[in-house]
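Try this one yourself first.
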């Protein structure tokens, strides 16, 4: 499945994300660590593709993970941040901009069966369940696209 990136804020209007980034009317933009977090890598791709890096680099507050970025924006420690669309399921507060997919590479989220579990029936059954219609419907419901 492919994760989707969202610019989210509880204090600013970010519905026109590119314009919000260019305007720079914020002091803190949170992204997850691009060296270790796929959503951080995607956020950096967006920032560089839009050519706003120089304008925002001093305002970037890095979270260890996309979960920490969500926390920074949720608690208003950062005015805006790049989070996963799935994190905003059921969240009505704030504004968001679903980042166009052409601004960043795919954020692949996969499941694998490890060698240790190769003979474990429950592990095999779970992977099969993930491929089925019920799980795929839930995955889509939370904003992921499927290969």
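Now uncover the answer:
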């Amino acid at each position: 499945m492919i994760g989707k990136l969202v610019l989210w804020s509880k204090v600013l209007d970010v519905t026109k994300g590119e314009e919000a980034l260019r305007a720079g009317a914020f002091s803190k933009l949170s992204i997850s660590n691009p060296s270790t977090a796929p959503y951080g890598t995607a956020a950096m791709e967006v920032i560089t593709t839009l050519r706003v890096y120089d304008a925002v680099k001093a305002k970037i507050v890095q979270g260890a993970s996309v979960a920490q970025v969500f926390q920074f924006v949720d608690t208003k420690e950062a005015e805006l941040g790049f989070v996963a669309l799935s994190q905003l399921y059921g969240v009505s507060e704030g504004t968001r901009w679903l980042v166009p997919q052409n601004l960043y590479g795919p954020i692949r989220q996969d499941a694998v069966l490890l060698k240790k579990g190769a003979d474990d029936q429950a592990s095999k059954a779970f992977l099969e369940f993930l491929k089925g219609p019920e799980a795929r419907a839930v995955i889509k419901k939370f904003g992921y696209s499927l290969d």
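Discussion: Residues 38-49 form the longest helix (12 residues). The helical segments are 17-23, 38-49, 53-56, 66-74, 121-131, 133-141.
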